[in-house]
Amino acid sequence: PLSVGSYVAALLPRLVGANDLFLNCLIAGLAGAAINGLLGAFMKRYGGIFFAMLTLAFAMVLYGSLANVTALGGTDGFSAPPPGFLGYIPSQQHRPVLTFFGAGIVGAAALCLTNRFFESRSGWAARAVGANDIRVAYLGADAGSIVWISIAYSGFLGGLGGALTAAITGHVTPDLAYWTHSGELVLIAILGNSSQAIAIFIASAVIETMRVVSSAAFPYTWQAGLGVMLLAIVLLLPDGLDALFRRRAVGGNSEIAEKAP
Q1: Considering only CA atoms, which of 39, 14, 62, 30 is closest in space to residue 173?
Q2: What are residue 171's phi and psi, to 5 degrees?
Q3: Helix axes 179-191, 222-236, angle to 10 degrees
Q4: Which of 166, 204, 182 has the alpha carbon at shortest distance from 5?
Q5: pTM (two decimals)
Q6: Exposure of 51 by Cβ count < 10 A (0-12 exposed, 13-18 middle, 19+ buried)?
Q7: Residues 6+ apart with CB under 8 A from 21
Q8: Sign of the alpha-carbon torsion through 94, 172, 184, 46
Q9: Rounded distance between C-alpha atoms, residue 97 and residue 113, angstroms
């Protein structure tokens, strides 16, 4: 969905002549949801390592397809025109600031929407399926449909991210579908493992900060330094940031219990 969203956002101005950041994000998100919805209809019956390998396989098929389409620039990709903002076309000097500001608005909207999804019936059912899908099936719920909804919604968010990537970088390539990018997203999901959507933003900031620090401290072996840092996180926080949220909640409850008469 990330690569699909970036290509859709970059191609929209050429196909329909409209080039607005928020419109591009919406259409790219719907395209990502459609792609994931189609794949989810097949993949909802799998789980664990089988699900991971299938998603990786589909991503690499998409990467190979985009890399061989010369009309889309092949492996080099092509440039994405700078978007407007609700009909306003900023100057070259103010465009980067407004682009990041617009990306912040889209990110905040996605955060609120995801929190609403977590608190909805589908969100609570998705947590139950993640904990024990067999028990959910025994209770009479359709675990496959719940997984399909979650996959489609994650595709919508991936499409948003692809559109923002195209707007910020001004260039799209098939590399967004390569397995290394998928691995980074999985790592962010593991680190931000929480029922709070803000944890994903925190996890992304943590990993990016670690990347910058590692490349500055170890310019020639920064991948090894980044790997050591990530290994420390996995060992110290095996449950991701959710462990910190739980510790804070338990600490707050203990303080309340101590103050109670």
Answers
A1: 62
A2: -155, 140
A3: 30
A4: 166
A5: 0.83
A6: middle
A7: 83, 84, 85, 99, 102, 103, 106, 163, 167
A8: positive
A9: 24
Structure tokens at 251: 């600490």
pLDDT tens per residue across span 165-180: 999 988 899 988 888 7
Measure the CA angle with vertex 189, ends 163 and 120; round to 5°.
80
Q: CA torsion sign, 54 to 59 to 60 to 61?
A: positive
Helix (H) and strand (E) counts in the chain: 10, 2
Long-range contacts, 49-58 (Cβ 8 Å, 24+): 52/186, 55/182, 56/179, 56/182
* Residue with tokens 């919508």, as numbered in its chain: 156
Distance between CA atoms of residues 61 and 179, nearest Å: 10
Residue recorded with tokens 């900023």 = 90
Question: For 191-227, what is each residue's pLDDT tens digit?
Answer: 777 667 888 888 888 888 888 887 787 777 777 777 7
